[in-house]
Design a protein that fits this description.
Structural class: alpha+beta
Order of helices and strands: HEEHHEE
Strand order of the largest sheet: 1-2-4-3
Strand content: 15-25%
Length: 127
């Protein structure tokens, strides 16, 4: 039933809110802004101000290499929960998560590859 499916915008908003809550509870850090965009069977996620205080401290003290390792380890540790969260929200299995961060800007990016495009309703149609 198409009318009971959420719109693409509703899914993207829900993902952003749930990811922000996940980072807050698991890392003790709330990213400044999270933007999610769904493109067929791919989801692009951008986190602003994604670095935790310990990572920022390492960067500020000239330990960028260690900060990169910490970020990589944190991404690996949170990946199973992030994958499960995305699957719950969009209702489609996640085949792969790709992520990277830029210490210079504090931004982190994640691309989720889905098995199929999520079921969404056209927001221009009236139910």
């Amino acid at each position: 039933m198409e009318s009971s499916s959420p719109t693409r915008g509703q899914l993207e908003r829900t993902l952003s809110q749930r990811i922000q809550a996940l980072y807050r509870t698991q890392l003790g850090h709330q990213p400044g802004q999270i933007t999610c965009q769904i493109f067929d069977e791919k989801i692009a996620i951008v986190l602003e101000d994604a670095l935790t205080q310990p990572e920022q401290l390492l960067v500020n003290s000239g330990r960028e290499e260690l900060a990169e390792q910490v970020r990589s380890d944190l991404d690996a540790a949170i990946e199973p929960q992030l994958k499960q969260l995305i699957e719950e929200v969009v209702g489609v299995p996640v085949l792969e998560l790709l992520s990277d961060a830029k210490l210079e800007t504090g931004r982190s990016g994640i691309i989720a590859i889905l098995a199929d495009p999520p079921q969404v309703r056209d927001s221009s149609k009236r139910s």
